[in-house]
Design a protein that fits this description.
- This protein has four helices and eight strands.
- By secondary structure, the chain is α+β, with helices and mostly antiparallel strands.
- The protein has two domains: about 50 residues, no CATH class; about 130 residues, no CATH class.
- Strand 3 and strand 4 form a beta hairpin.
- The longest helix has 14 residues.
- The radius of gyration is 18 Å and the shape is globular.
- The model has no long low-confidence stretch (mean pLDDT about 85).
Length: about 180
């Protein structure tokens, strides 16, 4: 027990405050949870689930998310534009402002200095058909997410979970960063 405690203290001391901040960020990455609210007179609709590779449903919501979104608690701008038919679909959703430095919000080939690069969240393809047809698929991390949401009229619930980020959180205690999202501040 003393050896484990000594190693833990040594890791924390040698990595500074960024170690604990990264563990907290990894935990916040595991899921978003909140209430979606339409902030206009037109009602929105969302009944959508994307359990890993397959997606089913439809969603078109532009409004606010009250809760945890993109590592932050509060009231965030929120968009969810998606459809799925089990074998194929597409999805674009996010909470908070678009951050081109966040790997969960951009393609791996994103180049912020290229004027041709879109300055908004990408639309991802979902389902096994884009993979089988060798179309440009989504990033591999999106295939291990489970996005769930329901929004009827002016209010709903948004609860995506990311099991791979849970693994990143647990493994992160050894200072390994499998999601490559830790910062050294």
């Amino acid at each position: 027990m003393w050896k484990l405690l000594t190693v833990t203290v040594a890791v924390i001391v040698t990595t500074g405050c960024s170690y604990l901040q990264n563990r907290g960020n990894d935990l916040l990455d595991v899921m978003d949870v909140g209430i979606s609210i339409t902030d206009q007179t037109r009602p929105d609709f969302r009944l959508y689930i994307n359990p890993f590779l397959f997606s089913v449903g439809y969603g078109n919501v532009d409004g606010k998310l009250i809760g945890l979104g993109n590592r932050h608690f509060g009231i965030h701008d929120f968009e969810a534009h998606e459809w799925g038919t089990v074998l194929t679909g597409q999805q674009r959703y996010g909470a908070g402002p678009f951050d081109p430095e966040d790997p969960r919000q951009v393609w791996p080939t994103y180049n912020k200095d290229d004027p041709q690069t879109p300055k908004e969240r990408p639309t991802y393809k979902t389902g096994p058909l884009p993979l089988l047809k060798c179309e440009e698929p989504t990033t591999w991390t999106k295939y291990v997410e489970c996005d769930k949401g329901i929004h009827l009229g002016w209010i709903g619930i948004h609860i995506p979970c990311r099991p791979l980020d849970l693994v990143d959180f647990v493994v992160g205690f050894t200072t390994l960063d499998i999601m490559k999202d830790d910062t050294a501040r």
